[in-house]
Amino acid sequence: APTLFAATPRTWRNNFHLAQAYLDKYYTKKGGHQVGEMVSRGGNSMVKKIKELQTFFGLPLTGKLDQSTMDVIKKPRCGVPDVAN
Amino acid sequence: YRLFPGEPKWEKNTLTYRISKYAASMSPAEVERAIEMALRAWSSAVPLNFVRINSGEADIMVSFETGDHGDSYPFDGPRGTLAHAFAPGEGLGGDTHFDNAEKWTLGMNGFNLFTVAAHEFGHALGLAHSTDPSALMYPTYKYKNPYGFRLPKDDVKGIQALYGPRKPYLGKPTVPHLPPRKPSIPDVCDSSSSFDAVTMLGKELLFFKDRIFWRRQVHLLSEIRPRTITSSFPQLMSNVDAAYEVAERGTAYFFKGPHYWVTRGFQIQGPPRTIYDFGFPRHVQRIDAAVYLKEPRKTLFFVGDEYYSYDERKRKMEKDYPKSTEEEFSGVNGQIDAAVELNGYIYFFSGPKTYKYDIEKEDVVSVVKSSSWIGC
Question: Which residues lie across from B246 on neighbouring strands?
Fold first, then answer.
């Protein structure tokens, strides 16, 4: 898989986990009372979810956790997913 | 804007809400005020009414929760996720939860509860996230000043797609036509525009507009009379761009285009000089507003949506300027037409509004009509 982003190993790991939790929370379908998610066919690889996030926020569609993508991931926000069903 | 799939909405136009658990970081009264203002932001655009109840099950249950609070969307402590809300529906539908681990505030020193609540109630009424960065329904936090808040266009379109527009109130016929107001101050009271310049001069406050200026005592609204600028400042003629006074020097500065005049009281001292004396870059052709801050002894010059800081002690422009006005004085909306400091507050005149900015709190504490300063 293409390297998700260029960073120092420690930052790499932190960012990766932060991003994984973010994508899981806001770009992944869950069970229970739907607070709002979009159904996405055939499951989402991480790269695909990153691209969904980049599309939503109008970022360059790299599929990588580049600086501008990580900046968005680190911003305080609403807990309702961006892809709603 | 985006709606939730299936476009869930409320089928009634009066909704109840109840604040069942309060924030740790704000008083109950402050929470109630912010929540009420946040709901009003939506009811101003659509025919929905919100009624607060204090017991039982409301359509919109509002609560401040910590961590896992039983709805399979646990909160995550300070920052990160701030709040969430559920789309319209029975039971959990419409309910709105705020992360109690956040520092909630009515101002800017923390997360502004009005800003987040207005966003969450958008969800509770049926809006999903918008991809428009200027929209209230954009997912990431951006402070909105509750005073003078206007729902962004994208959000108005979204909520009216669900509930239609709020009809203008055509109830009982309008009150019988009032006798025309005696033209106390000819046209400024009615106009929606602001002043060109405002400054202290000695013990008086001066307001400039076109060819007219008004003088008044700081604490007295009486005896405000318009007079022509030429009657007191023949060289200035009309349309002063900006003005400020350095009281400890007994000197005032009046700006028009790329020139300025120095006065002692109403006495102009010599011919006009160029604003480049202050160190402005050549592309600056005029100043929109100027205000002298006693404490740091610096003068802020506003040009478009930026501002410069001039050190009156060293008599030179400070480095790292211009800066964005909105970033430094967020909550003050629109271009600055005039500004003056009084008793630790900066009054920013922008169009028909005057923003009272608390220098210490770094926050707008109230908004009034500009024309009220001259007795309108």
Answer: B251
Which letter does DSSP use for residue B184 in this model? S
Distance, in Å, from the CA atom of B42 to the CA atom of B122, rounded to the nearest integer, reads: 8
pLDDT in tens, B6-62: 999 999 999 999 999 999 899 998 999 999 999 999 999 999 999 999 999 999 999
Say if strands B81-85 and A77-78 run parallel, antiparallel, or are unpaired: parallel
Q: How far is CA B139 from the centre of its chain?
A: 22
Chain A residues closer than 8 Å to B69 by CB:
none
* Backbone angles phi and psi of B370, in degrees to 5: -60, -40
How far away is chain A from the Cα of B44, in angstroms, using its nearest Cα?
23
Q: Which of A35, A58, A77 sits opposite B73 (nearest CB)?
A: A35
- With CB atoms and an 8 Å threshold, state whether B116 touches A78: yes
Pairwise CB contact (< 8 Å): A36 & B123: yes
Amino acid making up residue B76: D
Is this complex's ipTM strictly greater than 0.90?
Answer: no
Question: In chain A, which residue ranges form alpha helices assigned H by DSSP?
Answer: 9-26, 46-56, 67-73
β-bridge pairing B242-246 and B251-256: antiparallel
Give how far Cα B286 sits from Cα of B259, B261, B299, Å.
8, 13, 16
Q: What tens digit of pLDDT does each residue of B96-121 get?
A: 999 999 999 988 889 999 999 999 99
User: Which spans in B164-243 are helix H?
Assistant: 229-232
B70-74, B109-113, B145-149: which has the minimum mean pLDDT?
A: B145-149
Instruction: Report the distance separating Cα B21 and Cα B375, nearest Å.
Output: 44
Which of helix, strand or coil describes residue A7? coil
